[in-house]
Amino acid sequence: MSSNSGIRIPSRLPLLLTHEGVLLPGSTMRISVDTARNMQLVKTRLLKGTSLKSTIIGVIPNTRDPELDTEDLPSLHSIGTAGLAVQVVGSNWPKPHYTLLITGLCRFRVSQLLKEVPFPLAEVEQLDKLEQYTSPRNTSEAATPEGELGELSQRFYQAAVQLVGMLDMSVPVVAKLRRLLDSLPKETLPDVLASMIHTSNKEKLQVLDAVSLEERFKKTLPLLTRQIEGLKLLQKTRKSRPDDDKRVKLVRAVGKVGKFPGRPFSLDEDGDDDEDGDDNTVLERKVKGANMPEAALRVCLKELKRLKKMPQSMPEYALTRNYLDLMVELPWSKSTTDCLDIHSARVLLDNDHYAMEKLKRRVLEYLAVRQLKSTLKGPILCFVGPPGVGKTSVGRSIARTLGREFHRIALGGVCDQSDIRGHRRTYVGSMPGRIINGLKAVGVNNPVFLLDEVDKLGKSLQGDPAAALLEVLDPEQNHSFTDHYLNVAFDLSQVLFIATANTTATIPPALLDRMEVLQVQGYTQEEKVEIAHRHLIPHQLEQHGLTPHQLQIPQDTTLDIISKYTREAGVRSLERKIGAICRAVAVKVAEAAPRLAAGDSCHMTKAQRVSSDMASPPEMPIVIDHIALKDILGPHIFEMEVSERLTLPGVAIGLAWTPLGGEIMFVEASRMEGEGQLTLTGQLGDVMKESAHLAISWLRSNAKTYQLTNLVGGLDPLEGTDIHLHFPAGAVTKDGPSAGVTMVTVLASLFSGRLVRSDVAMTGEITLRGLVLPVGGIKDKVLAAHRAGLKRVIIPKRNEKDLEEIPANVRLELDFVGASNLDEVLNAAFDGGFPGISNPVTLPQITSKL
């Protein structure tokens, strides 16, 4: 490798096939490597090679569509570029690949393909001289080509100088290009400039194939001239522009001319390009027209000033541009006008939802106050109730009533505070929180936001989203809510926030204190029947393509579905059962349709006609009675097992509250000879275990009064006796104090040998002195007793005020006993009262107090 003969590349080169572009000598190019052969080449030659020679590879342009690439080696282009791999970067996302930075050295021709696997290896012939680097002073002293080649070289150099002179010399890349024109040998300029100006891959391939220097000048000179003509035309049409703005436009125009070679420019097209091309000017106009607060406008103008100074290749350019786009799209001053017609709002709410009077009244109150005070802040409401009672749909109806936009944010399982407040822009992949994203989606600053399942928020190392919601849901703070991504205050005071939850037990107290809680209780059977015939059945008929002339479900059948196939506080299971009926009827209707077509019987054989008569189409409408209901839905899922369960002493019915609504709960007790131990089963919590010990202690202390005996007739119920207390549905965890009166009744029944009434249920907390204390969830518990067909409900006397929330028809069908002590509980739970109680209160006297 002497300087006289020039530098020689290896005679055998591994070949890298690329479809991303054409590498020319003297240029640098990034190439993504993800095919099997290319990956093997990188691993074997570039990563494991130790000599400089191992980093020289041959780059062959692959003209075949990469999506059609197969395991077969495509036909190789005869001429390629020997390149030096100066950088290798690997990554596993989105799939394993390498990125190579390769500098082109010289052309070569493939003489013979030596092997194809694991990567192509070929015998090559070097086509260009590869001289050692010489200083600009020595270059100027080099011999200048003569004749036609010298003339082409001089014309090309002059054109290159003219092109660079038309660009902004203050840009570092342009200044570097100008210096290269003076330092590089003229025979290398065609390859260098062809790789820098915007040309198609086909044009670059033609330059690569031009082996002789004269042909290379002839191929490249028209490309250079085309760029100059395009710039001249753009300069002519933009003389009225400021010089700085003009230079930016001219640099962008070079790429546009190169992408569409040979296509003439028109003034109209150039005008459109001016409107869309000057993004910064358009963005600045949008920022000033967004009517944002002074503080936000000041931040946006500062970011816009930084944006103008950034080159588009900088990663921060895209981040800043996305930030400004979001600030422009946010509804700083856009809002909808509320519909304040109370009469129309009441009609709309009544049409959308049956019952739910408390929720409707609260919405109408808000409308009335808005009529009197237009600057009223949006309330923070929280609907708490079992699933399926319509909390989410009520929120949607409220938005429709007010004429506002509606946006739902699901918070179930969210455990990162950034979901609420957003990420800081210093992080990679940062984005605003769900609140700001929701405002951007609806396009107004006074929508109805539904924060669904706020009781199911999580907590993790990324913060507590419930704590982040404190600022959002506080009327005294949310007028200046600051998202981490925006880093400027946004006014949320006009947003109507509605949260939904199944229980308030899991909501942090500080968050619960900021919301106005409205309880949404379960429905009675009568309400469910009404809801089914007003909303569910018409909706399911529409969903299944049926009409009321094809299917009818009487109210008695609907009541059977509610009582024997569903047992829930809401109506979701009821809607699913109605959907199952519609599907079954749809099959009958679809089967009957072909047989009802005119003229079909003319082409039937005798056997087919007899078969058709036997399977005649059903008469319309199809009415679902209890027989058809059993055929479609199967045997009854819920039977009235109450009377069968209470056939022995030691069994009573308690009432429990769950997030899914109220439930009845059977409590069973048995005794056997032993050492006076108490066994509790059924996955009971600590509070229930303590209630069981309270019940035992109270009965032992009053055993003589109530004539309670043990197995051998003694007055101590636990002497020589073991007690086992069980709560069925053992897989479900149970806790709470409200089962205290039920435990006392069960044990009193066991020790006295008397049966508890089979139509009575009870709830209440007890004390060691025999007092009955109030508990929660009375409405849900009473509705559960009503669903189960019970007739008497024993509640704490201090809970009598909660009976006002229960529908009047349910109160008429149930007898309520308000008990202040355990004597009254036992007297009401047994037929004829309980022995040992002086002056027993009779049922008429109890009910008359209510």
Automatic annotation (TrEMBL):
Looking at the record, the residues that make up the Lon proteolytic domain are 646-832
Gene Ontology annotations of biological process type: protein import into peroxisome matrix; protein processing; protein quality control for misfolded or incompletely synthesized proteins
Start and end residues of each Lon N-terminal domain = 13-228
Cited InterPro entries:
AAA+_ATPase, ATPase_AAA_core, Lon_bac/euk-typ, Lon_lid, Lon_proteolytic, Lon_Prtase, Lon_prtase_N, Lon_prtase_N_sf
- Supply the EC number(s): 3.4.21.-
Q: What's a Gene Ontology MF term here?
A: ATP hydrolysis activity
User: Mind telling me which Pfam families this protein's record contains?
Assistant: AAA, Lon_C, Lon_lid, LON_substr_bdg
Entry keyword Thylakoid: no
UniProtKB keywords: ATP-binding, Hydrolase, Nucleotide-binding, Peroxisome, Protease, Serine protease
List GO terms (cellular component aspect): peroxisomal matrix
Residues annotated as binding ATP are: 385-392
Q: Where is this motif: Microbody targeting signal?
A: 848-850
Q: What is the active site of this protein?
A: 738, 781
Localization in the cell: Peroxisome matrix
The protein's role, per its UniProt record = ATP-dependent serine protease that mediates the selective degradation of misfolded and unassembled polypeptides in the peroxisomal matrix. Necessary for type 2 peroxisome targeting signal (PTS2)-containing protein processing and facilitates peroxisome matrix protein import.
* NCBIfam families according to UniProt: lon
Name of the protein in question = Lon protease homolog 2, peroxisomal
Q: Which gene encodes it?
A: LONP2
